[in-house]
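Practice problem 4.
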């Protein structure tokens, strides 16, 4: 376990995860953690905790059809108009290469700046729209989109809004079930940043990220690392016992 991620987990509210969406699709986890390992360790979902300097994206479930290029990655960043560069650092499964372009397109009916990737400011004015609907993406089959709402994001963080940035990901070969890529960010992401994915398979089926498996950046408080890490396991076990 990395020092940053261990601290983030310890500082979070340790809740028993809801696994209602256990077959889900494009999943976010911290660097170095597969969805199955993260889940088996009992770490928080609704959403998953990730560090400020990178994350892993996995095509986990959703059938055996590969996703068509591009797959979209959406970063929702509070209090910042700067979008980081994403650099692939580790590929898994059948992948031989990944390119992450800020902006591009737009694709799949969405609307964003093709150069900067900016897709607007997501706040209470979105109403009941999910972030996917807010951007205008095609979503005929749901794909977990409804739960990526302002109400869920605000309820989880208390934040009032997020600047949205869209990245177009191109995979060699296509993104298949079980494949993953880890990205490092050129800028540290602020606390409360959300990361979600979106794609279409060859049959037009939507694969997206429900709130249960979104990534949310959790930044540790300064000066607490040495005190928190040794107690991480005990804290989590106690929390699970209390919430059963």
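Answer key:
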């Amino acid at each position: 376990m990395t020092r940053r991620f261990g601290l983030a987990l310890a500082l979070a509210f340790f809740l028993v995860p809801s696994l209602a969406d256990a077959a889900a699709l494009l999943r976010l986890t911290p660097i170095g953690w597969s969805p199955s390992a993260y889940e088996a360790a009992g770490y928080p979902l609704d959403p998953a905790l990730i560090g400020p300097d990178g994350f892993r994206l996995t095509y986990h479930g959703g059938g055996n059809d590969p996703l068509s290029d591009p797959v979209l990655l959406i970063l929702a960043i509070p209090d910042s108009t700067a979008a980081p560069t994403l650099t692939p650092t580790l590929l898994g499964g059948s992948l031989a290469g990944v390119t992450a372009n800020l902006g591009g397109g737009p694709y799949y009916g969405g609307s964003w700046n093709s150069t900067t990737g900016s897709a607007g400011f997501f706040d209470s004015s979105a109403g009941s729209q999910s972030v996917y609907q807010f951007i205008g993406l095609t979503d005929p089959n749901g794909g977990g989109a409804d739960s990526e709402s302002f109400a869920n994001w605000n309820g989880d963080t208390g934040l009032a809004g997020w600047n949205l940035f869209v990245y177009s990901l191109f995979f060699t070969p296509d993104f298949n079930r079980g494949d993953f890529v880890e990205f490092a960010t050129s800028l540290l992401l602020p606390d409360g940043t959300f990361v979600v994915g979106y794609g279409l398979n060859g049959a037009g089926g939507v694969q997206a990220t429900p709130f249960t498996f979104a990534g949310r950046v959790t930044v540790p408080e300064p000066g607490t690392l040495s005190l928190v890490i040794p107690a991480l396991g005990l804290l989590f076990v106690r929390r699970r016992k209390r919430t059963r």
